[in-house]
Amino acid sequence: MALRVDVITIFPDYLAPLQLSLLGRAQREGLLEVHVHDLRDWTHDRHRTVDDTPYGGGAGMVMRPEPWGEALDEVCASLPGRTPHVVVPGPGGDVFTQRTAGTMALELDWVVFVCGRYEGIDERVYLEFARRYPLSVLSLGDYVLNGGEVAVLAMTEAIARLLPGMVGNEASLEEESHTGGLLEYPVYTKPASWRGHEVPPVLLSGHHGQIADWRHQQRLERTAARRPDLMQRYREDEDHGDVGRS
Ligand code: ADE
User: Fold this and answer.
1) CA-CA distance, 125 to 171, in Å (whole number)?
2) Which end of the chain is less enclosed by CB atoms within 10 A, N or C?
3) Which helix (H) or strand (E) segment is 24 a member of?
4) 140 lines ligand 1 (CB under 6 A)
5) Longest Cα pair distance anywhere in the chain, in angstroms?
6) What's the count of helices (H) and strands (E) in the chain, helices before strands?
7) Is the pLDDT of residue 230 over 70?
8) What is the pLDDT of residue 242?
9) What is the mean pLDDT of residues 71-75?
């Protein structure tokens, strides 16, 4: 079954890149189905209002609950017999990682993305829909975007490329960063010498064992230098794996 993705946003055009490149191909090949909805279609006033001032005061505007309520009622009931996983991108959520992407690609067949803007969505929308559906707030990382749309692009791409049948070269998926807990090794192509920079000789040696060792060493060094947090977890997992060995 294709992964169905619905996106509700006040900027449908923001999601146009989902039609490009590998994601576009995945849709043409029937692996992925994307439907983008304009939240303002569920407003009823002349100005198609989606926001209002915050109770209790403070800066900015808050998204009103009624358009979100009607939109989610309708979109989440649009596939009879199926239950969506509702995802609200936001900087206050659990961090979306390669593991999250892999789990979602494997286990979900329908994701409804809720794109907040302004200072956020009225809290009662979360309460109402978390009662009715599995609902996650997911963050791309520790920085603040203007809204959820860019996060939906990133998450959908990360998930969709892990769908079975998506990438021609399965080996390239296995070797890349954040699979196996280490960063990637550096890669080179022709020419062997460029502006005085030489390709590491081992890569020209034809010794597959030495090349594999060198690449592994590079991954360890890079990870230690750039991501000590990942390195520590990698070491802990190794230690963990050693328990019980004599
Ligand atoms: N919306 C605003 N900031 C975000 C972030 N860091 N991740 C996901 N969605 C967001």
Assistant:
1) 42
2) C
3) helix 21-28
4) yes
5) 75
6) 8, 9
7) yes
8) 44
9) 99
Does the CB atom of residue 114 touch ligand 1 within 6 A?
no
Q: Indicate the pTM of the whole model.
A: 0.92
Atom of ligand 1 nearest to the CA of 138: 8
Mean residue pLDDT of the chain comes to 93
Atom 1 of ligand 1 has which residue's CA nearest to it? 90
User: What ranges make up the beta strands (E) of 19-134?
Assistant: 32-38, 51-52, 62-63, 85-95, 110-114
44 in Cβ contact with 67 (< 8 Å): no
Task: Please tell me the number of Cα atoms within 13 Å of 231 on its side-chain side.
Answer: 12
Place of tokens 């990942």: 230
CA 234 – ligand 1 centroid, Å: 27
pLDDT in tens, 98-134: 999 999 999 999 999 999 988 999 999 999 999 999 9
How many angstroms does the Cα of residue 136 sit away from the middle of ligand 1?
A: 13
Q: Which residue has the tokens 């169905």?
A: 4
Structure tokens at 164: 């079975």
**What does the angle CA 69 – CA 60 – CA 41 come to, to the nearest 5 degrees?**
30
pLDDT for residue 243: 40
In this predicted structure, the answer to whether residue 20 has a pLDDT above a threshold of 80 is yes
Could you give the C-alpha distances from 41 to 49, 75, 214, in angstroms and in order? 10, 12, 57
